[in-house]
Specification:
With 153 residues, the chain is an alpha+beta fold. The protein is built from three helices and seven strands; from the N terminus they run αββββαβαββ. Strands 1-2-7-5-6 form a five-stranded mixed beta sheet. The protein has a two-stranded antiparallel ribbon with strand order 3-4. Helix 2 crosses helix 3. The longest helix is centred in the middle third of the chain and has 22 residues.
């Protein structure tokens, strides 16, 4: 068991099977020492977390949805690393998308639900560049979607 797997276990996180694509794309692309992971939506054991921040969801609920996106990103990353998360050298960049009303401006706080977990799991290597934007609707009605770029060995 790698140190990353131990951290996940300590956090009570059991990685799900990677989510299959819902359209014409692949879940990740490895090129050189980088892995580009397609957007992962806020889906967990209880199903897809739907909602709109500023309407029927508050910031803590949005952060929990973003945390699910992080778990799904790590699941895809583990598949890209052929099951060995110790190959991860750095979380390079995350792109966060939040379904929100036009007047909801706490988008960065919502995406912190994903960013914070990356730092909890990967330590300093989990600190990353990031964008966080809102949109009126996300695929399947998801509340949050996050994509990512990672450096691996």
């Amino acid at each position: 068991m790698s140190a990353i797997d131990t951290r996940l276990a300590d956090l009570g996180i059991d990685l799900p099977e990677p989510v299959a694509p819902v359209a014409n794309y692949v879940p990740f692309v490895r090129t050189g020492n980088q892995v580009f992971i397609s957007g992962q939506v806020s889906i967990g054991a209880e199903g897809l977390v739907k909602g709109t921040l500023g309407s029927d969801m508050d910031i803590p609920a949005g952060q929990a949805a973003a945390r699910l996106c992080a778990i799904n990103l790590i699941s895809q990353l583990k598949a890209a690393c052929e099951g060995d998360l110790s190959r991860v050298k750095r979380v390079v960049k995350l792109g966060g998308f939040v379904a929100a009303t036009a007047d909801f401006t706490d988008i960065p706080q919502v995406i912190n639900g994903c960013s914070d977990l990356m730092v909890e799991v990967f330590g300093d290597a989990g600190r990353h560049a990031r964008s966080a934007v809102s949109c009126p609707v996300l695929p399947l009605g998801a509340a949050v979607e996050v994509d990512g770029v990672f450096e691996i060995e």
